[in-house]
Amino acid sequence: MKISRFYLYITRRFAPSMGLCIVSAVFFILYPATITAQTVPALIVGSETDFPPYAIVDAKGHADGFSVELIREVSGVMGLPIDIHTGQWKDILSEFKKGNIDILPLVALSKQRADMAAFTKPHTVTYDSFFVRKGSPPIRSIADAKGKEILVMSSDAAHENLIASGVPVRVVETKTIPDAMRQLALGRHDAVLVSKLIGHMVLRELKLDPAIISGPPINDYNRQFAFAVQPGNYELRDKLDQGIAIVRTTGKYDALYDKWFGGIEPKTEFPWRAIIWIGSIGCLALILISLWIVMLRRKVHQRTAELQKALAIAKAAEEEIKGLNKTLIDELNERKKIENELRAYKNDLEDMVAKRTEELTEVKDRFRTAFEFSTVGVAITSPEKGWIDVNDEACRMLGYSKEELKSMTWAEITHTDDIEPDVTQFNRVLAGEINGYNLEKRFICKNGTIIYTTLLLNCRRSADGSVNYFIAILEDITERKRMEEELKTLNTNLEKIVAEETRKRQQHEQMLIQQSKMASMGEMISMISHQWRQPLNAISLTVQDINDAYNYGEFNEEYIKDVVDTTMGQVTFMAKTIDDFRNFYKPSKERVQFNIITSIEELLSMFGELFKKSDVDISVTAGQVTTPTTEGYPNEFKQVILNIVNNSRDAISSKREADNNIQGLIEINISNNAERDKVIVSIRDNGGGIPEDLINKIFEPYYTTKGEKGSGIGLYMSKTIIEANMGGSLTVRNVDGGAEFLISMCVLADATQA
Asked: Taking the alpha carbons of 195, 201, 207, 213 in that order, is the dihedral positive or negative?
C-alpha cells in the first residue's frame, strides 16, 4: 500500500517531467494493475505434427513439443484461452492464410513472410545445414549446392530461402523432414536442407546417424522462430510478447528449453545471472531515489522563486502566498513521508541482497567442498592451456603441487604421442565447432612415471561465444590399462594353453576350437566397446549435471551420494562386462553339469547387440522344458551356438544382397523329447537354406561356402564338440525359407529322475 500511494503521488505531481515519466514506467512494470479476466472465445492455434523437438504429436495424438508448451505457458499467464489444432505444415499454413487460424507458434522470420502475418519477437534461433550421405563432400553454402538435387519440407523456411536465392538447384519437396531423410538414406537426391538441430534429432530417432552427416552451419540465413498472428492484430501480438517476457522472467522458459533441448544442445549458464538481477534492482532503487531527490529539489527551488517573485511584486498577494506556503508545507510533509517509505524500501532491498549473497556464498562453499574432495581429478584450465585451479586428487595423480601446476601448461606434462590428438580437439572447441570432448591420454608425473587417464573436458563460453575457461575431469585408469595388458598377455599365451589342452584331449579338434574363438575376438572387442558406451555416457551426463545442480541450489549431501552411487553402479557394470567376456573365452577344462537354457541366454546377453546391428532378430523359446541340464563343456557349447547363429546371420546377409527388404530372423527352441532323456536345441533361420548338393558337406573340415571370408572349420569344430567330446548329435536340414540345425544332448540321470 505504501508503494502504491507513492506511485500515485509521483504520477499526479511530476508527470510533465521526462525523468519522472521513466520512473512511472518502471513502477508500472514492477506493480502492474490487476486485469479482470473476461470470457473470450478460444484462439485457434495451428501446430505441425512432425517438426521435432519444436512441434510433434505424442502417443495419444495430442500436440506436444517446445513451441506447443511455450504457447500454452504464454497463453496461461496472459489469460488467453486457446484451442490447438494439428496438421501438416503446408495445410496449417494454408488455413492460417485463409484466416481460419489465429496463432502459429513456430514460424521462421524471413523477408518473404514479412506481409504474411504480424510476428512477435523471436523466441529461439537456429541455423540450417546441408545433410548429405556419409562419404559425400560437404555443402557449405547455398552457392555450393548449384546443380544439385536438394530435398526440403514444402513451404518451410529452407524451401523459401532456397527459391529466393536464385541459385540453379533442383528443389524436391517433401511433406515432412523424416520423409526427406529417408529418401536421402535410400540414395535419392543429393542433400537435405534443414535446421541442423532438428536434422540431428530426426536422424537419431530414425537411427540413420551412420548413413547421413551434416555439413557446417550455412551463413546465407538463420531461422529466428517467433509466434505469428493474423496481419494487423497488433494487440494480440503485443500480449504474446509480454507473455514471453513473463515466462522468461519466471524461469519457465529455461525449464522448457532444458526439457526439449538439454540432451542435444546443452546450455551454459553461470551464477552471475542472479547476482546481476539483484544488483540491477539495487541500482534501480538508487536511481529512483536520486531522480526523486533531484526533481524534488528543482520543484522546491521553483516554488521558492515563485513565492519570492510574488512577494516582490505585490504585498497584496499575502493571502495567496500564505496559501502557497501551506501547499508547500503539505508537499514537504508528503516528501518526508515518501522519503521514509523509500528508506524502508531501501533497507528491505539491502536485506534481500545480503540474504541472497549469503545463499550464493553457501552454494559456492558447497561446490568448493565437492571440488576439493572429489574422487576424480578436477581442474579448471584456460584457453591458453594453463592451469587455473586443480583439486587435491589431481595433484595427487600428477605428483605436482597446485602452485607448480599453475606455473606450467598441461601440454608440458602431456605424453608426446598424445599432444596432437588432444590439441586438435582443443582447437575445435576454441573455434566453436564443439563444446567439449573426451579421450584417453597419458600424463608424465613429476617423478617421471606415466599414468593413463580418461579426460572429459567441457568449456564455458562468454556472451560473445569465446571460451572463458575449461572444466577438465581426469580419471586414473592406469590400473585398468595394466589389467588390459595382462589380458593381452593372457591372450598371447593362449596358444600355449591350447597346446596343453591338446595333449590331454584330441589335439587337432581343440586347436580348431581355439582358432574359431580367436576369429571372433574382434567381435568380442567390439561388443565390449558397445557395452561400455552407455555407462560411460551415463557417467559423463552425471558429471555434467553437477553444474546444473550447482546453478539451481540442488548440490547437497543427498545429491552427492546419489552421484557417487550412480557412478559406481556404472563402473561395476563395466567391470562385470570384462569378466563375462574373459570367462567366455577361457576353455572349459573339465566336464561339468550346466543348464543349456542359461548358457544360451548368457551367450546372447554378450553378443545380442552384434546381431541387432546386422538387423537380425533372435528369439529364444524354452517351451515345456523340465530337464534342461546336461553334462559337458559349457564354454565350448556356447561356441557351438555362436558358430551356428553366425552362419545363419551370414546366410541372411547374403540373401539381402538380392532382396534388401528381408527382416532377418533366428529362432532358438529348447525342448525335451517324449522320453525326456534328451534336450533338443533347434536353431532355425530364414536365410534361404543350404543347396541340396552341398548340405552333406558342410560339416567337413576346411569346407566353406563363403569363399575367402570363411575358414571351413566352424561347423566341423561344432560337430566335433557335440558328438566326439560331449556325446550328443548335431544335424542340419532345410525348412521353409531357411535351414534348421538340431542339437541333441543327453539329460543327466538324476535330473531325469527328479
From this structure: positive
Nearest CA to 648 out of 615, 683, 680, 692 is that of 683
Torsion region of 410: left, alpha or beta (phi above 0 gives left; psi -120 to 50 gives alpha): alpha
Q: Which amino acid is at 167?
A: V
| C-alpha cell read off for 213 | 552427416
Closest to 494 measured CA to CA, from 375, 586, 390? 586
Alpha-carbon distance 195 to 125, whole Å? 10
HSE-up of 149 (CA within 13 Å, CB side)? Answer: 11
- Helices (H) and strands (E) counted in the chain, each on its own, are 23, 26
Largest pairwise CA distance in the chain: 137
**Sign of dihedral through CA atoms 234, 240, 242, 244?**
negative
CA distance 215 to 140: 6
Q: pLDDT, tens digit, for every residue of 313-329? A: 867 767 877 787 888 88
d(CA 78, CA 687): 62
DSSP string of 138-204, one letter each residue:
P--STGGGTT-EEEEETTSHHHHHHHHH----EEEEESSHHHHHHHHHTT-SSEEEEEHHHHHHHHH
Verdict on whether the full-model pTM lies above 0.90: no
**Assigned C-alpha cell, 247:** 515466462
Set of cell numbers at residue 157: 523456411
Task: Return left, alpha or beta for 101; rule: phi > 0 is left, psi -120 to 50 is alpha, else beta.
Answer: beta
3-class state of residue 273 by DSSP: helix
Give per-residue pLDDT as tens, 157-181. Answer: 889 889 988 999 999 999 999 999 9
